[in-house]
Design a protein that fits this description.
Layout lengths: L14 H6 L27 H17 L5 H4 L5 E4 L9 H8 L5 H9 L4 E2 L2 E2 L11 E4 L15 H13 E4 L3 E6 L15 H4 L12 E2 L8 E7 L2 H12 L4 E9 L6 E12 L4 E6 L7 E13 L3 E8 L6 H8 L28 E9 L5 E5 L4 H10 L16
Parallel strand pairs: 8-14
Antiparallel strand pairs: 1-4, 2-3, 2-4, 5-6, 6-8, 7-8, 9-13, 9-14, 10-11, 10-12, 12-13, 14-15
């Protein structure tokens, strides 16, 4: 992958950006060892026992004080609180989680997404950072009531069966679903069925529900990672944040991208329209602009009209792959937002649906080892592959593509 698409780089890459472009290098865990200056198996520091004894009465007093039920700590009406010095630079979702232990991940995401929580009177994202002294409006909150075992309704049992049918990888901590195209990951305006809502039927005896740790677009099919425990959610979101998760997508695009393997680097920003929101190519420093990096490789062509490409996103921006492929002149077939080639005719027999698949995800497992899941082509893409004579078992060059 020695050639690059120079026109897509907004400016020479800095050291930080070069570091950002190494998403799939394994991050080896450091072995636990003794603290600096200490020896394994050494005696505890002198007077440690005496200090523990002096602290014992206070600890005993705290232990004897009855803890308030979690429900009593939750606000039953709108309240406004001020961000303390200890909470400075804390993420919005972590702030709520710390202030109200026991509040479910989905409930936190829901109140933030709906704008019920405000910071200095403005809507925020769950990943936004708070500053000391800011005023936070908190809506009424509640603990999700766990369902009694065996109390699932007929509809809930059907939902559980649908989730099981989608499952391509599962253990006690993690679930990987093969999300079908057309099914949203999270709810929106007028949407009653989505993955987050379906996961309600999987609450355990403690009322804990499996948590989303990333998202894919509604019309994109393929691998969707779910954390079944709070422990797993913390580790998996950390893996996405540190970019130690490896994701591979397959797409069908018009024409033949040149060079056949390349790197796309731009800044992306949301552009609000009357009826829709899209991501536009932005400049460094533009309001709301975020750096986005994608690697692509041509897998196979069908004449000169259509090409099967494999995509490896380094960053995880909204609509990143769709916007990037449109940017280099090869928008994804069936994309209602970004396919804008005039007078282009869809070959006969192909469905006018988004041809984008979250093909594979590889990520460190929270308890050691690796999660490696692969999703098959969805029916409309399999139909296109058959009609075009593309071999889904063909070697994927993006798998071993260099990081730079």
């Amino acid at each position: 992958m020695s050639r690059r698409i120079k026109r897509t780089d907004p400016k020479p890459r800095s050291r930080d950006e070069r570091k950002e472009a190494r998403p799939f290098k394994a991050r080896s865990a450091q072995k636990a060892g003794p603290r600096p200056g200490g020896k394994a198996g050494s005696k505890p520091p002198r007077f440690a026992g005496e200090r523990a004894e002096r602290r014992a009465p206070k600890a005993a007093l705290e232990k004897s004080a009855p803890a308030k039920p979690v429900e009593e700590l939750l606000p039953t009406k709108v309240q406004t609180v001020t961000v303390t010095a200890d909470e400075n630079n804390m993420r919005v979702d972590r702030f709520l989680e710390a202030r109200f232990p026991g509040l479910s991940f989905s409930h936190i995401q829901r109140v933030v997404r709906k704008g019920e929580l405000r910071v200095d009177g403005k809507r925020v994202d769950s990943k936004d950072r708070l500053e000391e002294g800011q005023s936070v409006r908190i809506p009424p909150l509640k603990i999700d009531t766990p369902k009694a075992p065996g109390a699932l309704s007929e509809a809930a049992q059907k939902t559980l069966a649908a989730l099981k049918e989608m499952t391509i990888w599962e253990d006690d901590d993690v679930l990987v679903l093969n999300k079908p195209a057309g099914l949203a990951v999270q709810g929106g305006s007028g949407m009653t069925r989505h993955i987050d809502q379906m996961l309600e039927v999987m609450r355990d005896s403690k009322g804990q529900k499996p948590r989303l740790v990333h998202r894919i677009d509604r019309e994109t099919s393929g691998c969707l990672l779910i954390a079944k425990t709070r422990f797993a959610a913390s580790h998996l979101t950390g893996a996405f944040r540190s970019r130690s998760a490896r994701k591979v997508y397959w797409a069908l695009v018009p024409g033949l991208p040149k060079p056949k393997q390349g790197r796309i680097s731009t800044f992306l920003a949301k552009e609000e329209g009357e009826d829709d929101t899209i991501m536009r190519i932005a400049q460094h420093g533009d309001e709301g602009a975020s750096h986005a990096v994608t690697y692509y490789a041509v897998v196979e062509t069908a004449g000169n009209k259509l090409t099967w490409v494999s995509l490896k996103p380094v960053t995880g921006r909204t609509h990143q792959l769709r916007a990037h492929m449109e940017h280099i002149g090869h928008p994804i077939v069936g994309d209602p937002k970004y396919f804008n080639i005039e007078n282009w005719q869809l070959p006969g027999g192909l469905q006018n649906r988004l041809h984008l698949l979250a093909r594979r995800i590889v990520i460190p497992h929270p308890r050691g080892g690796v999660i490696d899941a692969t999703a098959p082509l969805p029916p409309h893409m399999q139909q296109s592959w058959n009609l075009l004579g593309l071999d889904a078992t063909r070697f994927d060059p993006i798998e071993n593509a260099p990081e730079e």
